[in-house]
Amino acid sequence: MQKDRIEVGVWAWGRGLESWLVDHVVIEGGPAQPDAWAALTDLLGRSWRHAGGAELGLARLAIDTGYETAAVYGWARSVGFALVAPVKGLEGFNRSSPVSGPTFVDATAGGKRLRRGARLWTVATSTFKAETYRFLRLARPTTEELEAGAAFPPGTAHLPGWADTEWIRQLTAEQLVTVRNRRGFAKLEWQKLRERNEALDCRVYARAAAWIAGADRWPEATWADLEAQLGVPSGMDSPAGLIGRSDAGTQGKRRSDWLGRREGWF
User: Fold this and answer.
1) Which residues form the Terminase large subunit GpA endonuclease domain (predicted)?
2) Disulfide check for 242: which of 71, 84, 166, 248 has CB 3.0–4.6 Å away?
3) Which residues of the chain have pLDDT under 50?
């Protein structure tokens, strides 16, 4: 959330937290512009085509509350907390969990204070930044190894060809350093190497959205269900076209909803 724009990073997540950058959307106009909020609302209903043919919608959107907090709460409340998760980033590594919540916080609508008006999640941004950089350092299999059946290691982050130099620099805009306070005690701290770091912030909150959606805790059966919907298993008819349809899963075993919103579910 910026004064003159809203930036959204769209990431897809797979088994072992393997991830793919799907899109990076910049909505011109900040939180003071109704058109910007309308465009963000429209994004909630947008879909992106998977390589297997499925149209995938957003499973969860995490939105930072650090700037224009009241406006963010108001928008999130208007579209519903089932899909949108207001988040607040916290520094430091001494957190019991990388994501905590949700807790109810007061929100303001039309100048009126609403008790239990919004649900807020707190995110240990330092933890997810460290994880992101660790994933970026993973060794990737060669073309020959992939052709021989090798898989990418868990956590691999895949970037598309349109991710330009500026975006890459934003993703790697910070470094972890050791600093000492006046009493000589050392601590780890993330410091900017450059001013623009929106790509990294968006990645961190997309990772938080995956956590909130449950990706870190899904059992094998859930991943197998999601992969089957995408037609990943070979030798099976791909049901990918059912994803996102209001009649998906109405016959036989009910399919998971996490690959996209279904009409009437949220």
Assistant:
1) 1-216
2) 248
3) 234-266
Tens-digit pLDDT profile for residues 69-122: 889 998 998 999 989 999 999 988 867 789 988 888 766 655 566 666 678 999
pLDDT tens figures, 113-124: 666 667 899 999
b/e per residue 77-99 (b: at least 16 CB within 10 A): bebeeebbbbbbbeeeeebeebb
Q: Give the N- to C-terminal CA distance of the chain in Å, as an integer.
A: 24
H or E element in which residue 88 lies: strand 84-90
pTM: 0.82
Alpha helices in the chain, H assignment, sequence order: 34-44, 69-79, 125-136, 143-147, 165-171, 198-213, 220-229
- Strand-pair category, 174-180 with 112-124: unpaired
How do the domains of the chain map onto residue ranges?
5-162+200-232
Cα separation, 107 vs 256, in Å, equals: 32
Determine how many CB atoms are found less than 10 A away from the CB of residue 182: 5
